[in-house]
Write a structure and sequence with these properties.
Elements lengths: L3 E4 L6 E4 L5 E3 L5 E2 L1 H8 L1
Antiparallel strand pairs: 1-2, 2-3, 3-4
C-alpha cells in the first residue's frame, strides 16, 4: 500500500493511495480524487 497522503475531512485518519486512482480513508472508507486534495491545500 502506498504511503499516506493527507487526512480525511470526516474522521481525521490518514489517506492512502487507492488502486483505482485517488485516495481513500481506510477508517470510514471515504474516497477522494486528486482534485479534492488540491482544493484543500489552496
Amino acid at each position: 500500500m502506498a504511503q499516506p497522503y493527507g487526512r480525511c475531512e470526516d474522521c481525521g485518519e490518514r489517506l492512502y493511495a487507492h488502486i483505482e486512482g485517488g485516495y481513500q480513508c481506510l477508517n470510514c472508507k471515504r474516497r477522494y480524487t486528486a482534485a479534492d486534495l488540491e482544493t484543500r491545500t489552496a
